[in-house]
Amino acid sequence: MKVQNDIEVAYQNLSQSQRLIEAYQAGVLEDARTTFSILEKAYQKGGVTLIDLLDAARTSRTILQNYLEALFEYQRNLFLLEQAAGQDIL
């Protein structure tokens, strides 16, 4: 019973990790890059302040960092599921 529970919990965690990665890949990463690019061009033309540009850069980097952490968590959760199941999953 404990093994089954461990597998179910590990599978749920893996599924959540996968959904988070899919959300990032569905547009969150690209939106952050695009926003920064637009603000960078606007800054060069005097349309936004340096603070606005730095905020956009920080936000873009934070989103990228969070995405990389989500990828790590996915791999970790995959490992934990494989460990609980006693075999390779993918």
How does this model look, in words?
The mean pLDDT is 95. The protein has helices at 2-44, 50-85. The radius of gyration is 19 Å and the shape is rod-shaped. It has 2 helices and no strands. It has 90 residues and is mainly alpha-helical. Helix 1 runs antiparallel to helix 2 (50-85).
What topology does this entry show?
Elements: H1 2-44, H2 50-85
How much of the sequence lies in strands comes to under 5%
- The average pLDDT score comes to 95
User: What would you call the structural class?
Assistant: mainly alpha
| Oligomeric composition of the shown chains | single chain
How much helicity do the residues have? over 70%
Q: Which outline best applies?
A: rod-shaped
**Gap from first CA to last CA:** 24 Å
Low-confidence stretches: none
* Helix segment tally: 2
Largest sheet: none
Q: SSE order, as H and E?
A: HH
What is the β-strand count?
0
Could you provide a short overview of the structure?
This protein has helices at residues 2-44, 50-85. It is mainly α and 90 residues long.
